[in-house]
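User: I've been going back and forth on whether these two constructs are worth ordering. Before I decide, could you fold them both?

Assistant: Sure. I'll take them in the order you sent them. The first construct and its structure tokens:
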Amino acid sequence: QNNLTLLLCQTATIDTGIYKGTISFLGVDHAEGDPIKPVPVVGGTGDFALARGIANTSLVLTENKHHQTVSVFLFDVALSY
């Protein structure tokens, strides 16, 4: 097959507002297809300890800066405890 598949392993730090900690994401991104892609939430720390859920991700912007490609994604996260 000629489909580009990416492994997503990311931790987001939340340190503003009333909730503080990290949220961990782990999943597969099929680069082609639906512009909104689900990514599993597999844990967290602090106020997000043992969090589970789903994040719908979408690409907002891609640009080249200083000979590097920079991409910005939007994560819409729904958590359960």
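The second construct, handled the same way:
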Amino acid sequence: AEEIEKYTEEENRDWTIKQPKDIEEGLRLSALCYTKALDGRNLSQEDELSLQRRLGNVKNEQGVFIMNQATSLIQNIPADASNEVLASSLTAAEELLAKSKVILQEGI
């Protein structure tokens, strides 16, 4: 950690050395790293294109991950679920799908 602190500003340390707690956070941190790299100066056109593609790949993975969460949510609704449980589950799935759509579009 001390070695990393030599090369990072304090405001950037939280995400640069953070261990992700789950897959979703790992993908989010990966996207943040690629975004920060794209903000760098003196990138060759080839490097910039490579970073943009990698960022697009991460955004695609994020979107699909969230879409799979929505699918799992719907598939795990019990057959005897009340209308209230069914309605709240469908609302939550719609919100996840909307989030997924936004993230997938960011990757284009």
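Notes on the second construct follow. The mean pLDDT is 87. The two ends are 35 Å apart (CA to CA).
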